Amino acid sequence: MLTARKVVFAMILLASSGTGALFAETTPGNLSPGAPPPRTLTYGDAATLGLVEGVTEYLPVSSIGHTILVTHALGLDLDQPLLDKQGQPIQTTHHGVTSTLTLKEAVDMYNVMVQAGPIAAILLLYWRRVASLFRGLAGRDPQGLLVLRNLLVAFLPAGILGLAFHNAIHDYLFTYHSVAAALVAGSVLILLAERWRRIHASNAIDAPGPELHELTWRQALVIGLCQCVALWPGTSRSMMTIVGGYLAGLSPARAAEFSFLLGLLTLTSASGLEAGLHLHELRAALPLGPLVLGIAIATIAAALTVKWFIGWLGQRGIGVFAWYRLALAALVLGVM
């Protein structure tokens, strides 16, 4: 019998065998005699990046740290200019300065757009909770309305700061050393948070704690302020919201559920901002088919990961991910 994991693996194998390019490439007439063809993002690359995004988005390990490594390993972090189907440079505007879109910039856009997969996974897995939120908005579910209030309160701090400092974060914090430092700092925080939870919350890791609708708006704000730290690339939004949930008295599983639901707002806003700022470039550089493939793989991978993660949290917490993050930081510094 085919399992979901086998389906994902089969999709990746099929995608990896494709030779089509995701981004527009230089036409033969523009190449110098004997010059190698330009590097492009193939269907296989798109599938691989989609898989990485789906697996890492909701784990406290930093999806950005992983995509940096994988992008480098695939040879996609190049300042190679991209051309459209007519052989003309694709233009992009940043800080009011117009320049030719590069392969690395286009891959960064792809990595943001493929977040639609993890968003879809949560909508599928938690559709009853999402329906409760909408019923609450319509005045038919008091508990759903309280959860929606808490999510909005938790979303606002990072939403405001992210919008205000979007360019500065991209320009100054999206570096290999900055990401590695965030991975290490996050490891220390995880170990401290797990120790704090065991001392102050309960000796039982599966102790129920409060329901999501029982959180006060002040507790939700604490979670939201923790999420602000995740604006530092490499920190992990999932990690910070789970730690914030610990501080609010939530069990690991419920803290993770709140993190997943908060991700619907945060990831949708981030993807929407990227699409709004670079709609023209996205239309020129991202054909529909390969993007849909990446999103489909990211959706399945994220759904499987979330189901596994909830089971893991019910027994062990997030402590083990601290050691994984330290290893990843060493790998980032060693490879880059």
Would you write up a description of this structure?
- By secondary structure, the chain is mainly α.
- It has helices at 4-16, 43-56, 63-73, 103-113, 116-125, 127-137, 142-164, 166-172, 176-200, 217-229, 237-247, 252-277, 279-285, 288-313, 320-335, and strands at residues 91-94, 97-100.
- It has a two-stranded antiparallel sheet.
- It is globular and about 60 Å long.
- Residues 1-21 and 24-31 have low confidence and may be disordered.
Key phrases:
336 residues, mainly alpha, two-stranded antiparallel ribbon, 15 helices, 2 strands, 2% strand, disordered N terminus
Strand content: under 5%
| Average pLDDT rating | 84
Order of helices and strands: HHHEEHHHHHHHHHHHH
Strand order of the largest sheet: 1-2
Instruction: Work out the number of β strands.
Output: 2
- Rg, rounded, reads 21 Å
Report the end-to-end length measured between terminal Cα atoms: 42 Å
Secondary structure category = mainly alpha
Give the biggest sheet.
2 strands, antiparallel
Low-confidence stretches: 1-21, 24-31
How helix-rich are the residues, as a percent range?
55-70%
Q: In one word, what is the shape?
A: globular
Number of helical elements? 15
Q: Can you describe this structure in just a few lines?
A:
This protein has helices at residues 4-16, 43-56, 63-73, 103-113, 116-125, 127-137, 142-164, 166-172, 176-200, 217-229, 237-247, 252-277, 279-285, 288-313, 320-335; strands spanning 91-94, 97-100. By secondary structure, the protein is mostly helical. Strand 1 and strand 2 form a beta hairpin.
